[in-house]
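User: Write out your own:

AI:
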Amino acid sequence: MTPFSATASENGEQNKVHSADFHFDMPYALDAGIGLNRDTVEYISTVKDEDPWLRAFRLRALETFLAIPMPEVLKPHGIDDLNFDKIRYYLANNTGSQRSWDDVSPEVKTTFDRLGIPEREQKFFAGIEAQFDSEAAYNRIQDALTKEGVIFVDSTLGLKKYPEIFRKYFASVIPMGDNKFSALNSAVFSGGSFIYVPKGVKVKQPLQAYFRINAQNFGQFERTLIVVDEGAEVTYMEGCTAPRFETATLHSAVVELIALKNSKIQYITVQNWSNNVYNLVTKRSIAYENAEIRWIDCNIGSKLTVKYPAILLAGEKSRGEVLSIALAADQQIQDTGARMIHLANGTTSNIISKSISKGNGLASYKGVVHVNENLEGCKNNTQCDALLIDSCSQSDTYPKITVHGNKNNIQHEASVSKIDEERLYYLQQRGISKGQATSLCVNGFVNELIQEFPLEYSVELKRLIDFVLNPKRET
């Protein structure tokens, strides 16, 4: 079972895929209150015992957030329903991040037990972090990696214990004022992962973080920074869930990846947010000479997701790839895409996007491919495929391609199709229900990308897609 889909019930038996929809009413020792103002930001900085430079950074970010208008691209998506004055920006227990599950508070431990996190740590991962609302509740990495100098901690500890690395790269790829929501994150960020992999170290098993929202009217603002030194390699996986509430929940993360010369980063995301979550994130990376960065992204659930992972190909012969799956079910909006910015000769990028729309769901691809002036030998391939489940669903593609010079190779392909009724009929004639037949067709449509996920994840991802398409059927 995976932490983003199938879960275990309290008595250990397999439960439905959607059983991540639970929460605990619990007291919080640390609470910044409702609404966003200077007092909110100063409270967060005070309880974290931050240095003066970071408090000043947060306050400047608050001013920037208030000054930047809501992006025009969000207004058609009903963003006005999100009231920043009704959100709780910081909630935590005053227990810190533990290295043993036995030391985690009972409610938090029960949550992660039901999501299968401890079991998966033992089987598959070199290290794991579990965040509950605003702070990490658990963090541990294998001792052998620690001896090699690998760092994997939450961002709060990263700032305190490794300031010489963290501060050097912090906000270097995504400036505070990059957009309204990067400014919001900069003002109130808490949690997230800090990873540093030293020169030549290859982390063979994935590191994983799991982000869980428990509280109502809450905003989660983790900030993740991954720095992989020359010749090093790492795979990082993150899972996300939240219970369903009648009121809006906000998730607004900032993720920065830095791949130095000859290094490799693979960043895998599977989100399964409830349908009241606004998921508005900024994710960007930079690849130096002969480095490689891959984003593998699966977006399921949420009321609105806006996410465009970006790669700055800054060094010669650097490579970037974004593989994404987006499933927009009833009344959901998946506004996803990718950004490939070629800044050096001989750089290569690849974008493959698969979207599925169902029942008034809207899946949009918004991509940017940019090749700077005076560059040669740059290559890009973009493939956007959309599948419509019914006549009321919608899919849009908005590519923006800017290429300077004639010594580069750029390809773009897009297709929109509807599930073949004849194929459904053929499958039904062999005793398969229409819902099962639809799931088979959809899984066939995305199978190429699902195979890029680790095996144990790809199996459960198919089950999760099956449940979204057939919510009344046990999976």
